[in-house]
Design goal:
The protein has 360 residues and is an alpha/beta fold. Helices cover 35% and strands 16% of the residues. The chain has helices at 16-24, 44-61, 75-87, 100-109, 226-231, 241-257, 259-280, 305-317, 342-358, and strands at residues 5-6, 67-72, 92-97, 114-120, 144-147, 149-150, 155-156, 168-171, 188-192, 203-208, 285-286, 297-301, 320-321, 332-335. The mean pLDDT is 97.
């Protein structure tokens, strides 16, 4: 069977050559006679895998030496609790709510500290990014929190908020490694890897060392204290070994593709093909304010629920998978992460043109 074009928001498309390489090594990793899936996380072979993955990620993102790179479990959602637990000093934090995940993160943080929602785009179904140049951030806020790219609603912060000297924490799950970023502008950058980097089950957290507390409140679970994980270099307990191995292969693939600047150009080119079509189409409309459009997630609608459903059904039959929009938005959504080839987007647009003619 030939591979479909997978527009899933996550778990999502992975580079074909990475999957082929992993398939070749499935039964015997580099002559050791076993799969990485069967390998002890205390073995020299796995130590080399995780060390190399971290080294490649540091090179790709230019991560300074005073930041720890942690490979964690529990999904990005577990970090919604870990962040306030570890960063709590004054017991207050500022959240910018631009979608479902920031909203959930704020609700979780409320269990541990006072949350001040300093900006939100909920008034227009999260279809834009609010102006964050002069926010009313409490002086004593322990940090400012954003979800940088909104998977469900297809918006992206093109400029980081002015945090007025406060620590910036960013969930980058759905734009991780899609373009270069300046790590030093953040206190913590974290994200689930299942959208752009690897299989579900791994979360990467990049944390400035001075933000890893020597001691946390004794009610904080051992596994959620950043110091536990940092002191053990992500090997306090059995990590998601196979997932980390695949992430490492994807890092090498991105390096081979030319690094993050090349990735950004590749992603801009793909997104332009789809957005240009949406802007001229009579039937399909993008749902996001132009200046805030994501390069990764493109939601669109016809304005007619029955027609939307027909489109999703016919697209699936034609080999375009997972185009149904999130239940909170409806319509369609094409997630066009790093590993989605340009050809996939071109073919999708061809199909949309054909659908529009047939259903005009």
């Amino acid at each position: 069977m030939s591979r479909v074009y997978n527009f899933s928001a996550g778990p999502a498309v992975l580079p074909e050559e990475v999957l082929k390489e992993a398939a070749e090594e499935m039964l015997d990793y580099k002559g050791c006679g076993m799969s990485v899936m069967e390998m002890s996380h205390r073995s020299a072979a796995f130590q080399q895998i995780i060390d190399e993955a971290e080294k490649d990620l540091r090179e790709l993102m230019n991560i300074p030496d005073n930041y720890k790179v942690l490979f964690l479990q529990g999904g990005a959602s577990q970090q919604f609790a870990a962040i306030p637990m570890n960063l709590k000093k004054n017991g207050k934090a500022a959240y910018i709510v631009t979608g479902q995940w920031a909203k959930k993160a704020a609700a979780e943080a409320e269990k541990y500290l006072d949350v001040d929602v300093v900006a939100s785009s909920a008034d227009k179904t999260f279809s834009y990014i609010p102006d964050c140049s002069d926010l009313d951030i409490p002086e004593d806020a322990d940090y400012v929190y954003i979800c940088e790219n909104n998977t469900i609603y297809g918006t992206k912060f093109k400029e980081l908020p002015n945090t007025k000297g406060h620590i910036l924490v960013s969930d980058v799950s759905s734009c991780f490694l899609s373009e270069p970023i300046d790590v030093e502008k953040y206190g913590i950058i974290y994200g689930g890897v299942q959208k752009n980097i690897g299989p579900a089950g791994v979360v990467i957290a990049i944390i400035r060392e001075d933000l890893i507390p020597e001691q946390v409140d004794e009610s904080v679970p051992t596994m959620l204290a950043y110091k536990t994980q940092a002191d053990a270099n992500s090997l306090y307990n059995t990590p998601p070994c196979y997932g980390i191995y695949i992430c490492g292969k994807v890092f090498k693939w991105i390096k081979k593709m030319g690094g993050l600047q090349a990735m950004k150009e590749h992603n801009e080119k793909k997104a332009k093909i789809l957005y240009d079509f949406l802007d001229k189409s009579e039937m399909f409309k993008g749902t996001v304010v132009k200046k805030d459009r994501s390069l990764m997630n493109v939601p669109f609608v016809t304005g007619d629920e029955e027609l939307d459903a027909k489109f999703v059904k016919e697209a699936k039959a034609a080999g375009f998978e997972n185009l149904k929009g999130h239940r909170t938005v409806g319509g369609m959504r094409a997630s066009i992460y790093n590993a989605m080839p340009i050809e996939g987007v071109e073919k999708l647009v061809e199909f949309m043109e054909k659908f529009e003619k047939e259903n005009a």
